[in-house]
Design a protein that fits this description.
single chain; about 500 residues; alpha/beta; Spore Coat Polysaccharide Biosynthesis Protein SpsA, Chain A; Jelly Rolls; six-stranded antiparallel beta sheet; five-stranded mixed barrel; 11 helices; 30 strands
Length: about 500
């Protein structure tokens, strides 16, 4: 793929940078807080901002990032970006194909918007301690990327960690190669003895998964080393369509694309791979042990988030989503309480949470998919009670938002407004329903719920019938183009 290379002057390099944020992961090792439909990058873990919002803030002078995500997360991501006043281009993957294709479609989109920008690729779920140190590394990477290098940011290892991939640079350079060094090889996660050797040599860095390169350079290298992937990504992007403000890739084309990471598809094969050290604290919050390490602790090395009462406890992590957690005399323990699941684990075995989540899926359970409170583009619903032939939900509708026009074959619904005002449409007729008033939706009746006010609408929905599954929805129209989706 031949694209004319532009050589901007050094002072203007930063202005030519487009952030690319990869937000397709499910974060199963942080279950039960992280779920497939509400993963860790969207969680506001003991803070006012989520990890994806912090990723946006990392380079506040860069605007209009490209965010690659999946259909299930698109509206939640759009809302969180709106909260931090970030105008982004959302690219929706119809299926997961790992990082190399995700970056390829982002590069194609960046070029289609004009020019040949530098792409700053970042996962949405990393924490970086010193923003100034990150800027120093970014400045060094800019000069290399502008000379057609594919640059990754390596973290000098603080300990012999077996949970990260490693990158080897030229012997003897170690953390002193502040302006960058050519990469010799990538190494998979090592055993402890090998990790200690890497730490002692000074020639290895943790693989951060962050990159900087020209869009055209990446695409040319992909076409050279994996022409099949390049072709399918190009076709999926060319056949994409804009829906509800997002660029939706062609499912038929993208599904044929090989699944591979940027490390395997490009970095291990290219002659242009360089590393710039990131000399600051960096965390890939991949499990609860990493979360404990990154969080502020009390005098006994405990992390206490939420309603927690800990007596004579050491080096433990407690997180409550509402209920009181009371602990006595425990050490090195992880306790995470959500509305529908509790995790209790030894801190040294948190890597096994992923296999536990796989067991939930194999057993046909739903706790790995979503929380009891399920987020929707119009608001949320929380299943607060259920039994034989009935279910009770708390529904919250944001100001100005509407559920789809729909009907049900097997259930009736009784709505009681708790706060706000509801505009209810039933078989073409509209009715305003105020606080402490109710309305009944018959089986088979077309209906729509809207919040016409400027305050949140809350109502109790009582469902009754022989089948209460979420797939008992026939959707006729929807403000969010979800006509084929079964979610309310």
């Amino acid at each position: 793929m031949d694209i004319k290379q532009q050589q901007p002057s050094a002072p203007s390099l930063m202005a030519n940078v487009v952030p690319v944020i990869l937000s397709g992961g499910s974060g199963t090792r942080l279950w039960p807080t992280s779920r497939k439909k509400f993963p860790k990058q969207l969680l506001k873990l003991n803070g006012a901002k989520s990890m994806i919002q912090r990723t946006v803030d990392r380079v506040p002078h860069l605007q209009n990032p490209i965010v690659v995500c999946n259909e299930e997360q698109r509206f939640m991501i759009a809302k969180q970006l709106q909260e931090v006043d970030c105008r982004a281009t959302l690219i929706i993957e119809p299926c997961s194909r790992n990082t190399a294709p995700a970056i390829a479609v982002a590069a194609l989109q960046a070029i289609s918007e004009g020019g040949d920008p530098l792409l700053l690729v970042q996962p949405a779920d990393h924490l970086i301690g010193d923003q100034e140190a990150f800027q120093v590394a970014l400045d060094a990477a800019l000069l290399l990327a502008d000379s057609d290098k594919i640059v990754t940011f390596g973290v000098p290892p603080a300990v012999a960690d077996t949970g990260f991939g490693y990158i080897k640079v030229s012997a003897g350079s170690g953390g002193s190669c502040s302006e960058g060094e050519r990469i010799e090889r990538f190494v998979e996660k090592p055993d402890l003895a090998t990790a200690n050797e890497y730490l002692s040599s000074g020639d290895y860095f943790w693989n951060s998964g962050m990159f900087l390169f020209k869009a055209s350079v990446y695409l040319n290298e992909l076409q050279k080393h994996n022409p099949e992937m390049f072709s399918h990504c190009q076709q999926a992007h060319a056949q994409s369509a804009v829906q509800a403000g997002a660029l939706c890739l062609s499912e038929a084309a993208f599904a044929l694309c090989p699944s591979d990471s940027i490390d395997y598809a490009i970095m291990e094969k290219t002659d242009s791979a360089w590393l710039v050290p990131l000399n600051t604290s960096w965390k890939d919050l991949g499990n609860w042990s990493a979360m404990w390490e990154a969080a502020d602790k009390d005098d006994d090395d405990n992390v206490q988030w939420g309603d927690v009462l800990a007596e004579d406890c050491e080096s433990s992590f407690f997180q409550s989503d509402g209920r009181l957690i009371a602990a006595i005399g425990v050490k090195d323990l992880i306790v995470v309480d959500t509305k529908d699941a509790i995790l209790v684990a030894d801190k040294s075995r948190v890597h096994e949470v992923k296999s536990l989540v796989a067991r939930l899926e194999q057993q046909g359970r739903t706790e790995h998919l979503s929380h009891r409170e399920v987020m929707r583009p119009w608001g949320s619903y929380d299943s607060i009670g259920q039994g034989h032939r009935f279910q009770v939900k708390l529904i919250k509708v944001n100001p100005g938002e509407s559920l789809s026009l729909q009907m049900h074959h097997y259930r009736a619904e009784h709505w009681i407004v708790v706060s706000g005002t509801a505009l209810v449409e039933r078989d073409g007729e509209e009715q305003l329903v105020s606080e402490n008033e109710s309305v009944y939706i018959q089986i088979g009746q077309r209906h729509r719920l809207t919040n016409p006010g400027c305050l949140p609408l809350q109502l109790i929905e009582v469902q009754s019938g022989c089948y209460l599954g979420e797939d008992d929805i026939v959707r006729f129209s929807d403000n969010y183009n979800r006509v084929q989706d079964v979610s309310a």
